[in-house]
Write a structure and sequence with these properties.
Number of strands: 29
Shape: globular
Largest sheet: 7 strands, mixed
Number of helices: 17
Strand order of the largest sheet: 3-4-25-26-27-28-29
Helix content: 25-40%
Radius of gyration: 30 Å
Strand content: 25-35%
Oligomer: single chain
Structural class: alpha+beta
């Protein structure tokens, strides 16, 4: 890219190259070799710190990836869930190369967001259908390929064509991933579980007075998931059971619990419930397969088996597998009479069985460590432009991929955290991001100087260190190590859920140096947030990151700013926000009114006129002419409203705006407390 094409770029020292990549459509990264990493704050500044580090100049924005919200994603518990149901922190399945093979491994969801994109339908030979944007990538036997692309010109990139073969196990026809709460499935499950592993006993005994009849039902299992499901299903049939310990844990055996009842009527009802109906429904067979697999099945080393001595049960298993289209063989009976039904067809058949039967026991459906081998026919049959824009969802994961509808799908890097233009230098760095690729090495040299006094360093005071570009360049781990090794205390302010990636490293570093973490959350109403901050993580996702950092041992500050007049400053809105912040484990809250700095102010007026024209007169009165700050009167009113709520929720930390010391002319607002630096950084967003 010609440096002169972007105003000011020709004066950018140390420019190595300007990079545009398909993964970041619409973005240009200007990689530079920085001469310094530590930035000294001018002595006249109102900031209560002297040093900052900004590995990026500018903030990346919306991502071009995404798939349909209905797309099923394979989770670490072996079940499939819609991508729009996933939350930050959920464990799902990704892939990683171990030895010769790429293998399935658990990975956390680090970020999640939604957008609206042109929709394309990809149809595979096994019947799998996926709906994704043209920029989404899937893993093929020839590497990663976009849904759409071009052979030449500026849009050249690898893209899917017919007969390309995707990697994974496929999904075939869409399947319901949820356990159905229907009588036929419930009774089928009880039949498979109780006939496979339960005990029903009828007998008599003489107590020297008279002969008494005994009726007993008992089910003992090591897996609480199956025991709980059986107990719940029996209760729905009107049968109450009691739970008691059955076998204590030992070095070679897990503990077992049992459910039981001795009521003659209940035992008789259980016997009738577990009998095979004269004409079993499809749901009954699915429930039966689930119950008998939980009771007598195993899944080890990519082999799925169900064993039993009862030939009627074996026949029922075979009938059920035939019904749901899962290939299998019956192995010769062992000398003790045990017969094994083994599912063939590899992971595609196993996943079809799990999706249709829906077993309860998580450990029995775990594919962790299984090699990625495409046994199913995952050839691309067609890529169809649906001709419409639809709502889509994407996630960021630790492995940078996930399993979407049974095929390996690339994810986007962490979502951007600054939504508005950063115009500090008079230029738009929203889509032109300067990346100091050598920042960690330069920082180590600077921290090793004898003159360095180990003063506190602030990250996130200009642009977010956990913005989207960090997913590509991974600069923060090196910065964290350098600061910790030099015993330099530091703080981080972010909106980015990618912070979770580095929490283990930060926890280790905290043993050597003080670290303060702050999360910025301005808007808690999802509709308003989507309108005002498109592309940023939701409040729920950011609160989950607060909880993760709190659980890692950090006292997290939340910046409830900017507070928006007439939109987020009501008592109800503030009280609800603070309650959620407290529930997430935050130690304190810093708040401040909306600050509209030049450049961002013009953008905000456009948004307000489009979305809330009724508020334009009120805002013109609050922010007249070139004024960037809300009037002192409003700020005093807001402080009087928020402070009692902070005390009520035990979130008062003292780091609040001191409205009495606001400068008479435009300039930084003096803040009190350790978090002042981050609070001022938040003001830069407007």
């Amino acid at each position: 890219m010609d440096a002169s094409a972007l105003p000011g770029l020709e004066r950018l020292d140390g420019l190595v190259r300007s990079v545009t990549t398909p993964e970041f459509a619409g973005m240009t990264f200007h990689e530079v070799h920085a001469k310094s990493a530590l930035n000294h704050v001018p002595g006249a500044s109102a900031m209560p710190f002297d040093w900052t580090i900004n590995p990026y100049r500018g903030c990346s924005h919306a991502c071009a990836y995404c798939v349909s919200p209905e797309t099923l994603v394979l989770c670490a518990d072996g079940r499939q869930r819609r991508i729009d149901d996933l939350q930050v922190g959920d464990l799902i399945i990704g892939t990683a190369r171990h030895g010769t093979y790429r293998r399935y491994v658990p990975t956390p969801v680090l970020a999640k967001w939604s957008t609206r994109k042109r929709a394309f339908r990809i149809t595979l030979a096994d019947g799998t259908e996926l709906v994704a944007s043209g920029d989404h990538r899937f893993l093929t036997d020839r590497g990663w390929k976009h849904v759409t692309g071009a052979m030449g010109s500026a849009g050249q990139r690898p893209f899917l064509t017919t007969n390309n073969r995707l990697m994974g196990f496929g999904a075939g026809a869409p399947l319901d991933a949820c356990e159905p709460d229907l009588p036929d499935y419930r009774r089928g499950y009880l039949a498979g579980m109780i006939r496979g592993d339960g005990m029903i006993f009828h007998g008599t005994y003489d107590d020297q007075i008279r002969t008494r009849r005994i009726n007993m039902f008992r089910l003992a299992l090591v897996d609480d998931e199956a025991l709980d499901r059986t107990r719940r299903y029996l209760a729905q049939e009107g049968i109450a059971t009691r739970t008691r310990p059955f076998v204590a844990a030992s070095e070679n055996r897990r503990a077992m619990a049992a459910i039981h009842t001795g009521k003659a009527g209940d035992v008789s009802l259980i016997e009738s419930l577990v009998a095979t109906p004269s004409v079993p429904s499809d749901l009954w067979f699915e429930g039966f397969l689930s119950g008998i697999f939980d009771a007598e099945g195993s899944y080890s080393r990519a082999v799925l088996r169900i064993t039993n001595k009862d030939l009627d049960i074996i026949d029922t298993i075979v009938a059920g597998l035939n019904l749901i289209g899962v290939p299998h063989v019956i192995e010769p009976a062992r000398p003790n009479g045990v017969v094994t039904v083994r599912v063939t067809g590899g992971l595609p058949a196993h996943q079809r069985f799990f999706a249709r039967a829906r077993p309860a026991i998580t450990r029995k459906i775990d594919i962790t460590g299984t090699a990625v081998k495409s046994v199913a026919d995952l050839r691309v049959v067609s890529v169809e432009d649906l001709g419409v824009d639809i709502d889509m969802v994407d996630i960021t994961t630790g492995t940078e991929d996930f399993i979407a509808s049974g095929v390996i799908s690339h994810n986007c890097f962490a979502r951007s955290t600054h939504t508005y233009l950063d115009l500090d230098a008079g230029r738009d760095f929203d889509s032109q991001v300067v990346v100091k690729v050598n920042v960690a090495d330069v920082l180590r040299r600077e921290l090793a100087r004898p003159s360095w006094q180990r003063e506190a360093v602030a990250l996130g005071t200009n642009t977010d260190p956990y913005q989207r570009a960090e997913g590509r360049y991974r600069l923060m781990p090196g910065i964290i190590d350098a600061l910790a090794e030099s015993a330099t205390p530091f703080s981080i302010l972010t909106k980015g859920t990618l912070l979770r990636r580095d929490l283990p490293q930060l926890a280790d570093a905290r043993a050597r140096v003080p670290i303060h973490i702050a999360m910025s959350i301005a808007v808690f109403d999802d509709t308003l947030q989507a309108s005002l901050e498109p592309g940023t993580p939701t409040a729920t996702a950011r609160l989950a990151t607060v909880r993760a950092a709190t659980d890692a041992g950090f006292r997290v500050t939340v910046f409830l700013m900017p507070v928006l007049p007439h939109l987020t400053d009501s008592v109800a809105a503030l009280d609800a926000a603070l309650a959620r912040i407290r529930e997430a484990g935050a130690a304190r809250v810093v708040f401040g009114a909306l600050h509209l700095r030049p450049g961002a102010k013009e953008w905000f007026w456009q948004w307000l006129e489009r979305e809330h024209p009724e508020l334009v007169p009120a805002y013109r009165g609050l922010y007249p002419g070139v004024s960037s700050y809300a009037p002192v009167g409003y700020r005093k009113w807001l402080s009087a409203r928020v402070r009692p709520l902070l005390r009520r929720h035990r979130l008062a930390g003292g780091a609040e705006e001191d409205v009495e010391t606001r400068p008479a002319r435009p300039g930084p607002v003096r803040m009190t407390g350790r978090a002042a630096a981050a609070a001022s950084a938040e003001a830069r967003l407007f």
